[in-house]
Amino acid sequence: MFHVKHLESLEPEPAAAAAVFGESLERARAFTDDLARRGEELGLIGPLELPRLWTRHVVNSGLVAPLIRPGALVGDIGSGAGLPGLPLAIARPDARFVLIEPMERRTDWLRSEADALGLTNVEVVRARAEDAPYVERLDQITARAVSALRTLIPTVVPLAKRGGELILMKGARVEEERQAAAKQIAKAGLTNVEILTLGEGITTEATRVFRATVG
Q1: Each residue's pLDDT tens digit, 103-126
Q2: Are the beta carbons of 71 and 47 closer than 8 angstroms?
Q3: Domain coordinates of the chain in residue numbers?
Q4: How many CA atoms lie within 13 A of 72 on its CB side?
Q5: Parallel, antiparallel, or unpaired for β 207-214 and 73-77?
Q6: Tens of pLDDT, residues 179-205
């Protein structure tokens, strides 16, 4: 019954998927299909997400791939369903990804999905960000829909190397969040602070990113 529902309501693969994932498109398809089949059951996605799963979640996450440094060790904070961590690991096999997630049910999903997709560049760690064993070890840090910048920045900055980078996916109010986090940005010594809009002309769901260098 669910499989039929899944087939009927899953968003057709958009043209943007090939542009974003290139040679890794088959793995992106497999991930999207697995998330469509099991995501609602496991509490990873809401019941209304299937008709926009590709555009709003998978392609949206994959748009960040060009910002990942070659060979980087990237921490994905509050990875949840694996967004953006798994699409990024699919798109950037040259980088290594640590998916940091406190909920056991979600870490079980992340491990099984990474194994099913054959992603050898993924490690899953069950921990809150502040307890993760990666202090000053990460080259880059990603997060998507975790918390407001003023809360997120103090939590994740300790995990970054000096000269490391925050790549935090945010919504349409990212500029308001940046202004509200001015004290935290200054206290953390962040430099090269910018807001990027990715995917314009490629997809209908642009990705907004708060990017900054850790001093």
Answers
A1: 999 999 999 999 999 999 999 999
A2: no
A3: 2-214
A4: 25
A5: unpaired
A6: 999 999 999 999 999 999 999 999 998
- The set of residues, in sequence order, having a beta carbon less than 8 Å from that of 140 and lying 6+ positions away, is 67, 68, 69, 72, 73, 74, 75, 160, 164, 165, 166, 167
Answer CATH for 2-214 from 3.30.300.30, 3.40.50.150, 3.20.20.140, 3.40.50.720: 3.40.50.150
What does the angle CA 127 – CA 131 – CA 74 come to, to the nearest 5 degrees? Answer: 70
The gap from C-alpha 160 to its chain's centroid, in whole angstroms, comes to 16
- pTM for this prediction: 0.95
Structure tokens, 119: 């992603």
Of the chain, the end-to-end C-alpha distance in Å amounts to 53
Handedness of CA 47, 50, 53, 56 (dihedral sign): negative
Asked if omega into 47 is within 30° of 0 (cis), the reply is no
